[in-house]
Amino acid sequence: MAAPQDVHVRICNQEIVKFDLEVKALIQDIRDCSGPLSALTELNTKVKEKFQQLRHRIQDLEQLAKEQDKESEKQLLLQEVENHKKQMLSNQASWRKANLTCKIAIDNLEKAELLQGGDLLRQRKTAKESLAQTSSTITESLMGISRMMAQQVQQSEEAMQSLVTSSRTILDANEEFKSMSGTIQLGRKLITKYNRRELTDKLLIFLALALFLATVLYIVKKRLFPFL
């Protein structure tokens, strides 16, 4: 079973390796950084934090080495501490070089942007003029569409008014048809009544004629044949 002190040594070494790798990764990010300066400042802040953590863990490992009972193990750990310190110094040198390279790249980029400033201003002016022309064209198109919509609305209103007038005309004609229908029905009733009355008059005339003829025959009979 490993002694607690050995466990602390192993954990301390693992953390030192982890912080060392993180420092190297951040230094590479600084080399690849193309600006702005705020991004470089943020990366440097992170590097400082990792160096601080790394330094503390190296100091912890050095203290653990001094606490070793065996001289051989003590010397071995102290040698590891020296190696970690050298590696940290190498990382610091690489960090300074990466910063210098990054600052030179940012300065060159800013100079290039200043040289291209005139072209950028002309491009912006041209873009603004083009945008203004496009906006004017769009405005005219929208006004034309608005006028067309107003005409369509007016035509729709006229069509609606025409439909209302036609509806009223149809309703008036319907009322007239109803009135004419009532008149026709009344005429039909009068004609039927007249036909019935005519038939009655014909029957009465026929009966009167028959009575007249019977009376004439009776008178003739009495005069010509009194004995009958």
UniProtKB/TrEMBL annotation:
Secretion signal: which residues? none
Q: Which Pfam families match?
A: Sec20
Which InterPro entries does this UniProt record tie to the protein? Sec20 (IPR005606), Sec20_C (IPR056173)
An example Gene Ontology CC term for this record:
endoplasmic reticulum membrane
Which chain positions lie within coiled-coil regions? 37-87
Is Transmembrane helix set as a keyword in this record?
Answer: yes
One example of the protein's molecular function in GO is: SNAP receptor activity
Q: How does it sit in the membrane?
A: Single-pass type IV membrane protein
Residues that span the membrane, as ranges: 203-220
Q: Which UniProt keywords apply?
A: Coiled coil, Endoplasmic reticulum, ER-Golgi transport, Membrane, Transmembrane, Transmembrane helix, Transport
Where does this one sit in the cell?
Endoplasmic reticulum membrane
Name the principal localization, coarsely classed. Answer: endoplasmic reticulum
Output one GO BP term. Answer: retrograde vesicle-mediated transport, Golgi to endoplasmic reticulum
Ranges for the Sec20 C-terminal domain?
Answer: 134-224
Does Transport count among this protein's keywords?
Answer: yes
| PANTHER family assigned to the protein according to its UniProt record, in alphabetical order | BNIP1-RELATED, VESICLE TRANSPORT PROTEIN SEC20
Family assignment? Belongs to the SEC20 family.
Protein name per Swiss-Prot or TrEMBL: BCL2 interacting protein 1
Gene name per UniProt: BNIP1
